[in-house]
Structure to design on (220 residues):
């Protein structure tokens, strides 16, 4: 199965560090960040898990649940958590999926179907493609995917910025320009007619080109 933006996020049942979950039920009416790791006790991922724990209150403010995944057993995740707290200052404060049969990794197109059915004996290099961030909406559709190599730590500040942009679009049907940050001007999509743009932005907007109209960010 090939996943794309707009695809339904595959549902699954899995064991996590906070008990068994049914993924879609667990998301509920929230947004979700699912971020995956090739194996426990890997150096780059250790830094990522600690930073995400520090950033989690910001995702909470945005009605967004956070969940991690690694192909190793949940018991290993708990031991890894102690290392993360010791070295990064914060232990994971969100559930971590144990994907020991590789089922979730395969369902999310991070591993080929013929990769076997067990995490036992696999090295991080065997699972190098399991380094993806998925942003999933309350409608259980995939809104964004970011894929990283093992040697490059992910930028979760950028994930938060991207989530802000996606949520703003979901609420107001706007687009955001390069390097946009919350509070800055937005772009009115070409699909919004002039009549509708005039209604949505009574304070006015700038037409730089017929296809490029800039306006202040809508108020919540």
């Amino acid at each position: 199965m090939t996943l794309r933006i707009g695809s339904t996020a595959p549902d699954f049942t899995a064991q996590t560090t906070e008990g068994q979950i049914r993924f879609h039920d667990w998301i509920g009416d929230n947004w979700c960040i699912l971020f995956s790791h090739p194996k426990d006790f890997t150096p780059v991922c250790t830094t990522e898990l600690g930073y995400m724990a520090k950033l989690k209150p910001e995702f909470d403010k945005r009605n967004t649940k956070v969940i991690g995944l690694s192909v190793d057993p949940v018991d290993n995740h708990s031991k890894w958590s102690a290392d993360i707290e010791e070295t990064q200052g914060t232990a994971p404060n969100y559930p971590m999926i144990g994907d020991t049969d590789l089922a979730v990794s395969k369902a999310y197109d991070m591993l080929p179907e013929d990769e076997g059915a067990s995490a036992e004996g696999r090295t991080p290099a065997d699972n190098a493609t399991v380094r993806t961030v998925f942003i999933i909406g309350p409608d259980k559709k995939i809104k964004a995917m970011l894929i990283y190599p093992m040697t490059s730590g992910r930028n979760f500040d950028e994930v938060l910025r991207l989530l802000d942009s996606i949520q703003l679009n979901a609420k107001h049907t706007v687009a955001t320009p390069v390097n946009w940050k919350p509070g800055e001007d937005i772009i009115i999509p070409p699909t919004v007619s002039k009549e509708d743009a005039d209604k949505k932005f009574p304070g006015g907007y700038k037409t730089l080109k017929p296809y490029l109209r800039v306006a202040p960010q809508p108020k919540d």
Observations:
- Residues 43-61 form the longest helix (19 residues).
- Residues 173-215 form a domain with the Antioxidant, Horf6; Chain A, domain 2 fold (CATH 3.30.1020.10).
- The chain has a mean pLDDT of 94.
- Strands lie at 13-16, 19-22, 31-37, 64-70, 96-98, 132-136, 142-147, 186-188, 206-209, 212-215.
